[in-house]
TrEMBL record:
Gene3D superfamilies on file: 3.30.70.270, EAL domain, PAS domain
Residues of the EAL domain: 455-704
Stretches assigned to the GGDEF domain: 314-446
Annotated segments matching region Disordered: 1-30
Lineage of source species: Bacteria, Pseudomonadati, Pseudomonadota, Alphaproteobacteria, Acetobacterales
Name the UniProt record assigns to this protein: Diguanylate cyclase (GGDEF)-like protein/PAS domain S-box-containing protein
Domain (PAC): residue spans on this chain: 109-161
Species the sequence originates in: Endobacter medicaginis
PAS domain: residues covered: 56-87, 178-203
């Protein structure tokens, strides 16, 4: 209820007036069917308003819900006429008289009706009217059963008022999806000079210039609308007399309850006078601030833009571009070819920009791109995109032309703060790039350049390591918490660098992810892990997938290919992901995990509890295993709170039917408490560090021998034989942790 208003819709059907029942709907309960019927009636009694009255309007009874809605004491209303609850305009209406005629005829019907509360405010009800018949089939009285819909009515009236206001103030028309005009309001018809019957049934194309109708942009406009997407903008139209009309318009597809677009509504404002005046002014402005050859902003516009960015107090990045191998184009093919190349390059740069960035041509074959608030990493990626885009071949009169680009980079406030100083610093950096034989980007800051050079050297070393087979796998056993027998193993990737020695995973995994080399590295780990486990009968393998791999559309095909090539049973492969992977693109991550799950593999959440995990994510994604992060295991030794957290995780896992592995177990006390709390599997330095594959084979053989020596009884390896798994991780977070 809003502002004291409620609404009732009334519907009626004839029922016999038999005694013993408040509703007049049947005898007292005599069996299960009657009991069910009266239980339903009791529910309606509690949730709906009920009002019984004679055909002369005398109120016979009303339920508690009706008393609450109206605010009158029951004794005030019983015996009075229903007219006291109705607004005068309702009593005087023809619809009111028709309603009484229908009730006297014993008809069932529904209505929305407004009633007046004791405080004088209005309520709206949606009610059903049920005439009750006596033994001779005549209407004895009527029962009105209703529900309050005041808010719904108010919202509907508000929408209707808005629509009426729009209709009075704007040009409104509707169209079918083939462009047929379905309706047009008076303002629309008056603006274009047509009578309604001259528009209805004709095509939208009649309102546009013939040259526009046949264009690709016009076709795309309608295709966008057919796909259920809105279009808005400034549109040039033609009136009946051929006059030019400019409309600021929005085209909105209307969607039905099933999600299907049904028609298009156009809301438009005539801005012809504004456009004519603005066009001349903007043309003069544009000529003064844009390069005529490329259409890009010129140096004056560039400085103005940089000053505006500086005034906002945010950082700024300046990329100073100079085309490589451009002069020979003018010399050999002529200036027309050179102008064509400049125009193409300008268009490519324009397409690379986001809404808050600007590209300008400042002379010859030099361009500048300005972007606010970009990190050094983002700048590197942007520069690489520019280099890749510019080097794409350009065709001119049957000749393929190739150019490159060198880029100098300056950043505020570190390098400079004013536009002129930033351009000077970027120009100096550009000179260094050209001196290094071009086709590269160079930062003005030596520190940034050193970091970039170091990163590029590490990427080259990683790439060489993949080619030179410098990576190996080590395996860390995972044990039954109570039996201390090996249930599975986790494989961790290691890099044996020829000069640096053993490189910690924490040093090279981030570089691999940032550079994209994690994809080939992850594929190598997956293949190697599956290859090793084939030699360990009854044992499976789990591979940790990087977020980069989850975003890779080919990861499902890769896993399928590795399973086919190695012959590994999919049920022996377990894939681990970290919590953060789920939230960068939850929909895509879920789709990928479901696709992997369909192959028959198991899915594990690694480092559970350190990120964004929730019951919702556990229920929404197809997990089989939770791995409790080491920080929670460490907390067990500190106090009771840490142990309660682990107990809570174990309880959640049992409720969701998930297996649990405790990572980083390093003390006997931790192991003892985990056993007491029902944790089935543990892993950590207490029981074993990561070891080469040969050691795992030997450890499994010794374990089998011990089991055989014990006569095959007890909690030995046989107790876990059906579910032995070997877990191979690419070495993301857990690899770094276990290398310490």
């Amino acid at each position: 209820m809003a502002d004291g208003i409620a609404t009732t819709t009334l519907a009626s059907s004839p029922v016999s007036d038999r005694p013993t029942d408040t509703w007049g709907c049947g005898p007292a309960p005599g069996g299960p069917h009657d009991e069910l019927l009266h239980a339903k009636m009791a529910a309606i009694e509690r949730s709906h308003t009920l009002l019984g009255f004679r055909l002369d309007g005398t109120i016979l009874y009303l339920n508690e819900r009706m008393v609450d809605v109206l605010g009158y004491p029951r004794e005030v209303l019983v015996g009075r006429g229903t007219d006291m609850l109705l607004p005068p305009e309702t009593i005087d209406s023809a619809a009111y008289r028709e309603r009484w005629a229908a009730m006297r005829a014993g008809q069932y019907f529904e209505r929305e009706i407004s009633l007046i509360r004791v405080d004088g405010t209005a309520i709206w009800l949606r009610s059903t009217y049920h005439p009750v018949l006596d033994a001779e089939g005549r209407v004895d009285h009527v029962i009105a059963c209703g529900s309050v819909i005041t808010e719904e009515v108010l919202l509907r009236r508000d929408r209707e008022a808005q629509i009426e206001a729009i209709d009075k103030s704007q040009c409104v028309a509707s169209f079918a999806f083939d462009g047929t005009i379905l309706s047009a309001n008076d303002r629309f018809c008056a603006l274009f000079g047509y009578e309604p019957d001259e528009l209805i049934g004709r095509n939208h194309a009649m309102l546009r210039d013939a040259g526009q109708v046949g264009t690709l942009d016009y076709a795309r406009h309608w295709e966008t609308l057919r796909n259920g997407q809105s279009c808005a903008g400034l549109f040039r139209c033609l009136g009946k007399a051929g006059q030019e009309i400019w409309l600021q318009a929005t085209y909105c597809p209307l969607i039905d309850a099933a999600g299907t677009p049904t028609r298009i509504v156009k809301y438009a404002t005539d801005v012809t006078s504004n456009v004519t005046l603005a066009s001349a002014f903007e043309d003069a402005q544009r000529r003064s601030q844009h390069d005529t050859a490329t259409g890009l902003p010129n140096r004056a516009r560039l400085i103005s833009f940089m000053e505006a960015v500086a005034e906002k107090g945010c950082g700024m990045v300046v990329l100073y571009l100079d085309l490589d191998r451009f002069k020979p184009i003018n010399d050999s093919l002529g200036h027309h070819a050179g102008d064509h190349v400049l125009a193409v390059i300008a268009d490519r740069l324009r397409r690379l920009l986001s809404y808050d960035q600007l590209a300008a041509r400042i002379g010859g074959d030099e361009f500048v791109i300005v972007a606010p608030d970009m990190s050094a990493d983002a700048v590197e990626a942007a520069c690489q995109r520019v280099i890749d885009e510019v080097r794409e071949p350009i065709r001119f009169e049957g000749v393929e032309i190739g150019v490159g680009v060198s880029i100098g980079i300056a950043m505020s406030p570190g390098d400079a703060s004013t536009p002129d100083e930033l351009l000077r610093c970027a120009d100096i950096a550009l000179y260094r790039a050209k001196q290094a034989r071009g086709q590269r980007f160079v930062f003005y800051s030596n520190a940034t350049n050193d970091r970039l050079l170091s990163y590029q050297e590490q990427v080259d070393a990683l790439r060489a390591g993949l080619v030179g087979q410098q990576f190996v796998l080590e395996f860390q056993p995972r044990y039954g918490a109570a039996s201390r027998t090996i249930h599975s193993v986790e494989a961790l990737v290691r890099w044996n660098h020829p000069s640096r020695g053993r490189v910690p995973p924490g040093d090279f995994i981030p570089i691999a992810e940032r550079s994209g080399l994690i994809v080939p590295l992850g594929e190598w780990v997956l293949r190697e892990a599956c290859r090793h486990v084939i030699g360990w009968p009854g044992i499976g393998v789990s591979v940790n997938l990087s977020p980069v791999q989850i975003r890779d559309s080919d990861v499902i095909a890769l896993v399928r290919d590795v399973l086919d090539q190695t012959g590994l049973d999919p049920t022996r492969l377990e894939l681990e992901i970290t919590e953060g992977t789920l939230f960068s693109d939850a929909a895509r991550a879920r789709e990928t995990l479901l696709g992997l799950k369909a192959l028959g593999v198991r899915i594990a959440m690694d480092d559970f509890g350190v990120g964004y995990s929730s019951l919702g994510s556990l229920r929404s994604f197809p997990f089989d295993v939770l791995k409790i992060d080491k920080q929670f295991i460490d907390a067990i030794d500190i106090g009771s709170a840490g142990r309660e957290i682990v107990r809570a995780i174990l309880t959640i896992a049992r409720a969701l039917d998930l297996s649990v592995t405790a990572e980083g177990v390093e003390t006997n006390n931790q192991l003892s408490l985990l056993v007491d709390d029902g944790c089935a599997e543990v892993q950590g330095f207490l029981l074993s560090r990561p070891v080469p594959p040969g050691r795992i084979s030997a450890m499994l053989e010794r374990q089998v021998k011990r089991w055989r020596a014990s006569g095959g009884a007890g909690a030995g390896i046989a107790a876990h034989a059906p579910r032995l798994t070997a877990h191979a991780a690419v070495g993301m977070g857990c690899a770094a942790q276990n290398s310490s």
